[in-house]
């Protein structure tokens, strides 16, 4: 695994690194499709890979790639080890307190997933904070919900399902593995991530029990993050994204990776 990840880093470096003064991009090789993965040839692939190559090609200084664990991306940004980061980061009010976000490049939904033969029907109730309909603890209070640590889904469970046991994982793939193994009863995950699993042989016994309504805790789209107050870097990233929105290339990438349309 280490050898594959290192080769992926070198492949990406060769693609987007330019001269001294390049913006330092923090990215994780942890698989999270359709956003990001490392293929059998050691190449970074997925929506965020294609997007980042295009964005960095539009930034005059280019980009220097730095890979790290997903939960180390924001700390590395705050410690000035990188200039901007990508990792399917949902824009939330909590995160806005510590980082600045680019224009969102995608807006995702959240799914509550369990076994098909589980006859529990998740219910919605009015949130006490006035944010709309949220998942109720009724019927699922004796189960265990798997979430990715530091994710918006983890924050949602903490806010609205405090009496339901939650198990946090370093990667979304590991939460799926424990769902298959029966170590958790449910998952609260982004819909685009779980879609591929549910279509696979391993996912045949599972289904989406509920499409969770939009909620501030679940974010306001997916975006790059830059260091708080770094207006120069934010402007460069947003300018590149605006050009891609205007010429249609961003939508083509979303169509390819999210909706499977070439």
UniProtKB/TrEMBL annotation:
Keywords, ordered alphabetically: Signal
Record InterPro entries: Iontro_rcpt_C, Solute-binding_3/MltF_N
Annotated ranges, domain Solute-binding protein family 3/N-terminal: 22-261
Pfam family, one: SBP_bac_3
Signal peptide: 1-19
Positions of the Ionotropic glutamate receptor C-terminal domain: 24-260
SUPFAM superfamilies, per database record: Periplasmic binding protein-like II
Protein name per the record: Transporter substrate-binding domain-containing protein
Organism: Paracoccus broussonetiae
């Amino acid at each position: 695994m280490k050898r594959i990840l290192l080769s992926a880093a070198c492949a990406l470096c060769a693609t987007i690194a330019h001269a001294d003064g390049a913006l330092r991009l923090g990215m994780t090789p942890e698989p999270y499709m359709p956003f990001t993965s490392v293929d059998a040839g050691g190449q970074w692939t997925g929506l965020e890979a294609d997007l980042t190559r295009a964005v960095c090609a539009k930034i005059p200084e280019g980009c220097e790639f730095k890979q790290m664990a997903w939960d180390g991306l924001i700390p590395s940004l705050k410690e000035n080890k990188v200039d901007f980061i990508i990792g399917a980061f949902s824009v939330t009010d909590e995160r806005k307190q510590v980082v600045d976000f680019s224009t969102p490049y995608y807006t995702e939904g959240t799914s509550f997933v369990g076994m098909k033969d589980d006859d529990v029907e998740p219910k919605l109730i009015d949130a006490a904070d006035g944010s709309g309909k949220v998942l109720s603890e009724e019927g699922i209070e004796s189960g265990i919900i798997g979430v990715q640590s530091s994710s918006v889904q983890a924050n949602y469970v903490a806010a609205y399902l405090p009496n339901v046991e939650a198990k946090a994982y370093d990667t979304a793939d590991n939460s799926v593995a424990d769902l298959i193994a029966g170590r958790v009863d449910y998952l609260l995950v982004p819909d685009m991530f779980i879609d591929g699993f549910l279509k696979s042989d391993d996912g045949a016994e599972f289904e989406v029990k509920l499409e969770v309504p939009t909620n501030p805790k679940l974010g306001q789209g997916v975006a790059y993050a830059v260091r708080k107050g770094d207006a120069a870097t934010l402007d460069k990233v947003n300018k590149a994204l605006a050009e891609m929105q205007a010429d249609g290339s961003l939508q083509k990438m979303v169509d390819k990776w999210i909706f499977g349309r070439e």
